[in-house]
Each structure stands twice: as C-alpha cells, then as structure tokens.
C-alpha cells in the first residue's frame, strides 16, 4: 500500500513565502511601536551633552574623561568615570547627545546605567541610552569614526564637584 505524498506546487510555495514575509513585517512593526511610544514619553530634550573619554582593558574595562552639559542656556563641566565588564583594547571615544528629564542641575551628577534597551534595535550601533536614579536620561551617539558606544554590563559615573556655571549666551 502506498501513501500519498504532498508535493507543493509553485503557487502554494509562493503563497507560503508571502505569508511568512507579511508575518515578519507585522512583527517588526509591532516591535517599533513601543520604542516610539517610549521616545514620545520622554518629551523634548532639555539639554545637550558632549563627552570625550577613553576606554581600555581586557575582561575588566575602565573609562575616564570629561564632558560638558548645556542646560538652560548655561554650560557645566563634568568628569566621566566608569568600570565594567567586557572591555577589549584601548580606544578614545567622543560622544554627544540629548538630555531628557533634567529639572535641576543637581539631579545630573551620579551613576548612569544603560536604559531603554529597546531603542538599540531601532537606532542601531553607536547609540546608547543611559539613565540615572533621578530619572535623567541621556541619548548618546558616538562621534568617533569606526567606534561605537557599548557599555555592556557597566555604567558611567558623572561627577561635577562644585557646580560652575558659565553665563548664558544671548
């Protein structure tokens, strides 16, 4: 006794391929919606940062550098420090970006950890979202050619010492 075997015809293979492609497109669209909703939730940026720091190490990495925060028309200098896992080699990284959720300058210093992991898939390499315990969020982009921002399991510490203000431009 012979059993019948299913031999797909060319039109049924095309239909299956179309269904799979449409399913993948819909899945991608649903993945992008939460990222856009989170971005809208943050509102408009309230400041800008620029940073210059070096990273180096193997397995345990360390970084340090300096930066400038522009907030309410004034510039504030700060130091950047960080320790984490997964470093390899030595590199100097320049980054800049927007600051969200900062209401008082005193809320900026402190520890920042990687936040909003969903943004990474939408934005691609070179973009890093960091958040501190005061709800201040930084969206940083690497401005160094060939190097991308990636903290892995680490974070950054922002130190401002005494807060020095420059006069607003105007």
What does this structure look like?
- The chain is of the alpha+beta class and 170 residues long.
- The protein has 2 domains: 10-42; 47-159, Beta Barrel (Lipocalin), CATH 2.40.128.
- It is built from 2 helices and 6 strands; from the N terminus they run αβββαβββ.
- It has a 5-stranded antiparallel β-barrel with strand order 2-5-4-3-6.
- A hairpin with a 4-residue loop joins strand 4 (127-132) and strand 5.
- The protein is extended.
- It starts with 9 loop residues before the first helix and ends in an 11-residue tail after the last strand.
- The relative contact order is 0.18.
- The model is unreliable at 16-37 and 117-124 (pLDDT under 50).
Classify the helix fraction into a percent range.
Answer: 10-25%
Distance between the termini: 92 Å
Q: How many domains, in number, for the residues? A: 2
CA-based gyration radius: 23 Å
Brief rundown of the structure:
This protein has helices at 10-42, 117-123; strands at 47-71, 74-100, 110-114, 127-132, 137-142, 155-159. It is an alpha+beta fold.
Name its key features.
170 residues; alpha+beta; Lipocalin; 2 domains; 5-stranded antiparallel β-barrel; 44% strand; extended
């Amino acid at each position: 006794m012979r059993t019948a075997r299913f031999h797909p015809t060319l039109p049924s293979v095309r239909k299956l391929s179309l269904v799979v492609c449409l399913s993948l497109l819909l899945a991608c669209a649903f993945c992008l919606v939460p990222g856009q909703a989170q971005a809208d939730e943050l509102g408009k940026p309230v400041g800008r940062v620029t940073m210059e720091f070096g990273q180096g190490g193997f397995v345990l990495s360390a970084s340090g550098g300096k930066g400038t925060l522009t907030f309410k028309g004034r510039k504030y200098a700060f130091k950047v420090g960080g320790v984490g896992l997964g470093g390899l080699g030595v590199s100097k990284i320049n980054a800049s970006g927007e600051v969200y959720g900062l209401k008082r300058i005193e809320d900026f210093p402190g520890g920042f950890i990687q936040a909003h992991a969903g943004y990474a898939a939408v934005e691609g390499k070179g973009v890093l979202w960091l958040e501190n315990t005061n709800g201040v969020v930084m969206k940083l982009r690497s401005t160094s050619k060939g190097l991308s921002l990636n903290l892995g399991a680490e974070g950054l510490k922002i130190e401002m010492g005494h807060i020095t203000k420059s006069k607003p431009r105007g």
